[in-house]
Amino acid sequence: MQKQIIVLIGGPGTGKSTLINELVARGYCCYPEISRQVTLEAQQRGIDQLFLEQPLLFSELLLEGRIKQFEDALEEPDNVVFIDRGIPDVVAYMDYIGDDYPEHFVKACTDFKYSKTFILPPWEEIYECDTERYENFEQALTIQKHLVDTYKKYGYDLIEVPKDTVENRILYILDKI
Fold this sequence. Notes:
P-loop_NTPase, ATPase, NadR/Ttd14_AAA_dom
């Protein structure tokens, strides 16, 4: 079986981390979303929302981390590796806020390609804000559109995961791989 690096994408609060946690519980190799860690480390240094205050620095850190996740996934003994958010997410978020970014952001999107891309749709009933998620639901909808546009721009076929129970969403994803 050929190595599959599978990315779960979607706007904030669509259930990606919940699915990653369930996949881990089932024994799958999974890499967590790294933006929360970058945000928490910045907060420990006194920067409340690094993405809002220094979006390019935040995005550079995310890009480095996501490239490392991709490279690490290639070295995993498991044939299937799931990742919570991918490299093109960085570009999508920069487009969302309207900031420019260096050409190496685009190059990373073309150099590192995921095997499959599952997108989770916005789901207001499960949406929650917290200390790391500052966006309201309307902003989450706009981010979702940027994610779809960005991944399609880089040639990805997006597989939409239906709104359903965690169990049924997991079964849907596993059935598609």
